[in-house]
Design a protein that fits this description.
3-stranded antiparallel beta sheet, D-Maltodextrin-Binding Protein, domain 2, single chain, alpha/beta, 11 strands, disordered N terminus, 2 domains, globular
């Protein structure tokens, strides 16, 4: 090694050392603008996590592609994502362990009252955030296929685009999570003519899921997953799981404080609060053996429709660590 090479290496190490020290003292978590992400914000308010002495640092993600890029560049340690995305990571060789499952509200939003029943979907066009093969598309295909229904997908870039199209009357219905579902309804009220049909949240797909799949009643499509090197650290996984569950409990007891917490990173979500309470804030955690069983069933359905949607095969037995 020449002197120049040595100095370059030394300079690189001196720059990397602070970054490494910062990474070793923090847990970097991420999530989209949905209610289930809010515990990640609350986790950062209580100081270092017990057991691993790391402080939680939060960064939002705005699209599945952005999340995948963050994981590929080792920019995140744990994130809220779909169960299918977590399984895909594991199958692609990225260590991933699911430490909490949630059953999130997913609404069919429309002015058509017939969509209060799943059968009203038959033959209708549906605005679906993100592209073919992403979770909104797969979820509705799984339900409609089992129920013997057909719909016409209209894929749009993201949930906000679907909200805008609905509020402008350029779509019959949309499949939306919170807060996008409430945002669509509130925007439509502002823009609507007095004689216009009323846009509303017609059907929560969790209710339809229980009817179509009574033996696996929990729609466990959302996961808090630990990735990378921490996914193999049982102590870290347990600490993150405990912190997420406790933060969800804190949210339930402190709804207005939670809304204030959301205002910095998710102002659009915070703006949908009614009397200080956010839509979808009553997070439905699904833990224990039954939760893992329902999630495996869900992944099995997706695998039957599109093996690529979960990375090619069902997850290994160690994938779910949700026995909180």
């Amino acid at each position: 090694m020449t002197r120049r090479q040595f100095l370059q290496t030394l300079a690189a190490l001196s720059l990397a050392a602070p970054a490494f020290a910062e990474q070793a003292s923090t847990v970097r978590v991420s999530g989209p603008a949905v209610a289930e992400t809010l515990p990640l914000l609350a986790m950062g308010r209580a100081g270092p996590l017990p057991g691993i002495a790391r402080t939680v640092v939060f960064t939002p993600w705005n699209s599945p592609d952005q999340l995948r890029a963050m994981i590929a560049t080792d920019g995140v340690d744990a994130a809220l994502m779909t169960t299918a995305s977590a399984c895909t990571l594991a199958n692609k060789g990225v260590p991933a362990t699911v430490v909490a499952l949630t059953s999130s509200p997913v609404w069919l939003v429309s002015s058509d009252a017939a969509l209060s029943r799943l059968s009203g979907l038959d033959g209708r066009d549906v605005l679906l955030p993100f592209g073919p093969g992403e979770m909104p598309d797969l979820l509705l295909r799984a339900l409609a296929g089992q129920a013997g229904l057909a719909f016409i997908p209209r894929h749009v870039g993201n949930a906000l685009e679907a909200v805008n199209l609905l509020s402008l009357g350029q779509g019959h219905c949309a499949l939306l999570s919170e807060p996008a579902a409430s945002l669509a309804v509130s925007r439509a009220k502002v823009r609507a003519r007095p004689d216009a049909p009323v846009l509303g949240k017609r059907l929560d797909l969790r209710d339809a899921w229980r009817e179509v799949f009574p033996e696996h009643p929990q729609l466990t499509q959302s996961a808090f997953a630990v990735t990378g090197s921490l996914a193999r650290d049982a102590v870290a996984c347990k600490a993150l799981q405990t912190a997420y569950v406790q933060a969800a409990g804190w949210m339930a007891a402190h709804p207005r404080e939670t809304t204030a917490l959301a205002e910095k990173d998710f102002p659009a979500l915070a703006s949908q609060a009614v009397d200080g309470v956010l839509p979808g804030q009553d997070i439905r955690l699904v833990m224990g053996p039954q939760g893992a069983q329902d999630a495996r069933f869900f992944l099995g359905l997706l695998h039957g429709m599109s093996p690529a949607s979960i990375g090619g095969r069902p997850p290994e037995s160690s994938f779910f660590e949700v026995d909180a």
